[in-house]
Amino acid sequence: xxxxxxxxxxxxxxxxxxxxxxxxxxxxxxxxxxxxxxxxxxxxxxxxxxxxxxxxxxxxxxxxxxxxxxxxxxxxxxxxxxxxxxxxxxxxxxxxxxxxxxxxxxxxxxxxxxxxxxxxxxxxxxxxxxxxxxxxxxxxxxxxxxxxxxxxxxxxxxxxxxxxxxxxxxxxxxxxxxxxxxxxxxxxxxxxxxxxxxxxxxxxxxxxxxxxxxxxxxxxxxxxxxxxxxxxxxxxxxxxxxxxxxxxxxxxxxxxxxxxxxxxxxxxxxxxxxxxxxxxxxxx
Length: 284
Prior knowledge:
The protein is an alpha/beta fold. The protein is about 40% helix and about 20% strand. It is built from 9 helices and 9 strands. It has helices at about 5-15, 20-35, 75-80, 90-100, 115-120, 120-135, 195-200, 220-225, 245-284, and strands at about 15-20, 40-45, 60-65, 100-115, 135-140, 155-160, 170-175, 210, 215-220. It has a 7-stranded mixed sheet with strand order 3-4-6-5-7-9-8. Strands 1-2 form a two-stranded parallel ribbon. Strand 8 and strand 9 form a beta hairpin.
């Protein structure tokens, strides 16, 4: 049994915000089951506050997040962000929130989709430039596909960064699908032991090459900047065609369409802004 003092200390150390009712209830229940009697979890929307209004007291020493991705936010939400960081894509907005809410010397680990790594539109590039210039993005773990199946089939990555100094270089490591697996599923989920290769590599980092392509490699910041801040490195060189169940196939299509719609909305908003500005100028 843990003492009341220990429980109180944990309760004051863990904070969270969840927008949707069901995950909010799950988070509260999970913490109650782990002896945190008064969980500091708010039923709220993290994107509702202007990021420039955050002060040091609103920041945290450690941030762990798997933000929603593939969704789209309204212009009223985007107005809470500086113009160069405003976007309709939820993952991009949450990435900005994380940067504004991480304390000096703080550490963060974030799950992000491939689209963030290779995205070249102005907003994604600006977010990545801010991340690289103000934070130490020291490691990116490329995860195998279907890690979050059946909830999403979008390929994801783990980004580890500290608010200590600008990025000098980034280590990339590709975690391959474990032997005997073609993909993960509800009945065959990813297990802690599948992540063991990352743990073994983490404390003894070396570059690794397999079948003529890098599996683990260090890239200096000069290379990253020269490549236009493209972080899509050490990816999976060979992808086998995967035949999905009809419902999974439809779900995958819907996720990709949602992500594309978010990108289209972002471009249309920019075009509308240009046309509005031109119309006002002509009116003058």
